[in-house]
Amino acid sequence: MARPSPAHRPRWSTPAALFSLGWFTRRRRPATARSVLAGEAAAEAARKSSQEAPPAEETETPAEPDFPVVGDTAAAAFFDLDNTVMQGAALFHFGRGLYKRHFFHKRDLARFAWQQIYFRLAGSENPEHMADVRNSALSIVQGHRVAELMSIGEEIYDEYMAERVWPGTRALAQAHLDAGQKVWLVTAAPVETATIIARRLGLTGALGTVAESVGGVYTGKLVGEPLHGPAKAEAVRALASAEGLDLSHCAAYSDSANDIPMLSLVGHPYAINPDSRLRKHAREQGWRLRDYRTGRKAAKIGIPAAAGVGALAGGAAAAVALQRRRR
Question: How many angstroms separate the first and last alpha carbons of the chain?
């Protein structure tokens, strides 16, 4: 596949912004009209992408004697991606792959690392700054073909993501598949990246942030807003309605308090590798918890600032380490 030449390469002045679509704070806010639009767009894209999904691989199922219920066609499962299904942030791993392919430079990795630190520790979101980040990210993909990034995404999955899937979470997803239920990823990552991961794991499909494209080329606009927080809940609600699901029979899994709106929709919410706020909320509500982290790794990932798209140790530090290796 031909790579963009320096003369024709789009502006990469703030490529770190590409990954920042999923970086949001823990502040809860109600769903807006843009959240609803983003959710409905993600649900439609997910349904289309699932039509050609291959059969799931055989995997040992967890010990859940009463759930999921075999043959319950009104049930499905919804899994957050970053630090729930996969260690770290999918967008960060995708960025590593783009860096390896010379899409941007080391100085941009340093900026990316700093942004991770800022969003983990600040604990607040500046709307104007986030709008600038989003617009910069959209300008980066504008004019690129969807098929190009999908092809690159397949390669990057094999290089950086395949070995980072949590076996325990994978087993939970397989339990739903073995029970005859559909399983969806729900993530702020681009729907194209999420769809690749879902297909490789043998899942039904993915709900993700939808970037507008015309004729297979990105326009530089989003459909609604990034699929985060309340927008995830709207996406699950829209998909459940389209699929004829009973949300009281469904399950949802996440590591982040940002996903409490999605977890609260279903009858079977799970906190997986939870941040401190979600762990507290889950205990108060009597939700089930699963933690597949051990030792110091769990302590690092479990700090409050790690909510959302991966731990500081697995994000910013990895970016700096990558810079040092000069890949």
Answer: 20
